Amino acid sequence: MNLILLGPPGAGKGTQAKMLVETYGIPQISTGDMLREAVKNQTQLGLEAKKYMDAGQLVPDEVVIGLVKERLGRDDCAQGFMLDGFPRTVPQAEALDKVLAEMGKAIDHVISIEVPNEELLKRLTGRRTCRNCGQGYHVIFDPPKQDGVCDKCGGELYQRDDDNEATVANRLKVYEESTKPLIDYYQAKGLLRPIDGVGAIKEIFERIKAVLD
Questions:
Q1: Dihedrals φ, ψ of 29, to 5°?
Q2: Strand 109-114 to strand 81-84: parallel, antiparallel, or no bridges (unpaired)?
Q3: How far is the CA of 126 from the CAs of 146, 148, 160, 199, in angstroms?
Q4: 123 catalytic residue (yes or no)
Q5: Of 16, 87, 187, 204, which is the most buried if we count CB atoms within 10 A?
Q6: Which of 69, 88, 105, 122 is catalytic?
């Protein structure tokens, strides 16, 4: 089973991905991990990617696609895989289709975890971190015993800059603008599986499983 996992920041994609890997025994392939591994192993594509990363630039599509192709050719992908964080754009999706066709593979399902923006804002802006030990909390879902104080070390809890409302709202807007065409692309191919991402983690996973099984 070959999957693509889509979802905005705060949708709980990471948690669901982990459960999918455990249940279906397929590898989770994230572009970030692939890039880091290729750079570490100093592969040809890794060295190429490193040039862009060192210059603070985005790694070009053809390099990323090359890495994806290499990764999908490994033995652990023979029974399926789950792409996470790729493709991000329609040109990347088209390039992926071409690569998969050359390999005699195809995408079976595109899981899109959907959560209303106000819920995402609540989830992302509620995060707090201990200045001292780095322990994470959430004012609604995982609050400390005493407001603003770390349970573990008594340190001060603070909100990271990228968790403030304006930054989060902007991240969600960017996600929507860049991903909307991708959602339309897979919808047109009949591959899109929208999943309601509100509720308990287990509930959401059962919704995904119902679609896949």
A1: -115, 110
A2: unpaired
A3: 15, 12, 10, 17
A4: no
A5: 87
A6: 88
- Residue type at 174? V
pLDDT for the residue numbered 172: 92
User: Residue 174: what pLDDT?
Assistant: 87
Catalytic pick from 74, 152, 160, 209?
160
The reply to whether 127 belongs to the active site is yes
Cα distance between residue 35 and residue 110, in whole Å: 23
In a domain, 42, yes or no: no
User: Please, are residues 28 and 20 in contact by the beta-carbon 8 Å criterion?
Assistant: yes
What confidence category does residue 111 fall into, taking pLDDT thresholds of 50, 70 and 90?
very high
The total of structural domains in the chain comes to: 1
163: in domain: no
Catalytic residue among 71, 123, 127, 207: 127
- Among this protein's residues, is 74 annotated catalytic? no
DSSP string covering 121-143: HHHHHTEEEETTT--EEETTTB-
Residue 203 structural domain: 2-26+79-116+171-212
Tens digits of residue pLDDT in 158-175:
999 888 999 999 989 988
Could you report the per-residue pLDDT of 137-153, keeping only the tens digit for each? 999 989 999 999 999 99
* Active-site annotation holds for 40: no
Q: Write down the pLDDT at residue 96.
A: 96
Q: For the whole model, what pTM was predicted?
A: 0.85
Q: Which of 46, 28, 47, 48 is nearest to 37 (CA)?
A: 46
